Amino acid sequence: MTDLKSLQTVIQSPALKLVLSHWLAARGDRPMPAWRDIDAAVIGKHLPQVWAWRYDRAEDLFIGRLAGEEIVAVLGSEIRGRSLPECFPTDAGQVVHDRYKAVVLGPKIMRTTGNVHMSTGRHGAGERLVLPLADDGVTGDGVLGVTEYRLNISDARALGAVIDHHHEDITFYSIA
Q1: pTM
Q2: d(CA 64, CA 87)
């Protein structure tokens, strides 16, 4: 696992940098901020790229809280109130679940980069940051994410897109 300072140097996207900065400020002296500590006004410019899931430990299930319009365009549906398996293709659902669970239980931060393929044959790239949340500041109970897609979002919305979860570059970072 890599340290937090190195994460701040490798992030390319302004959206990811701002959301990370807000997450760090919102947590204060706790390991993690709560969902209620995330201020939409602070990250407002990047809300189309922001998403969040609540983690139900008893059911070992992620339930959608929020997905910005760019996230919905690529996923093809809204996530709010829906379980993670309902929102991802079967072959990717378990991979995504396992990664988000590692972030929550670690707790740790995950950064990924990879390809997004469109049904037109065109493709783009994405950079994603997944940050743990904890209502009590200590016990992980959700994730806050931000994803920057470098592709034509209008085409993704109209024609569909597929995230290549199986071939992403993944790095985990300490929250300390």
Answers
A1: 0.89
A2: 9
Report how far residue 58's alpha carbon sits from residue 61's, in angstroms, rounded to the nearest whole number.
Answer: 8
In a domain, 40, yes or no: no
CATH of the domain at 16: 3.30.450
CA pair distance 5, 169, nearest whole angstrom? 19
Whether 104 is in a domain gets the answer yes
Question: pLDDT for 95-112, tens place per residue?
Answer: 999 999 999 999 999 999
> For the chain, give me the number of helices (H) and strands (E)?
7, 7
Torsion sign over Cα 30, 19, 132, 106: negative
Q: How far is CA 107 from the centre of its chain?
A: 14
Q: What are the tokens at 99?
A: 């990664």
Which range of residues forms the domain containing residue 106?
Answer: 4-34+48-174
Q: Encode pLDDT of 136-162 as tens digits.
A: 999 999 999 999 876 555 554 555 555
- Tell me how many domains the chain contains: 1
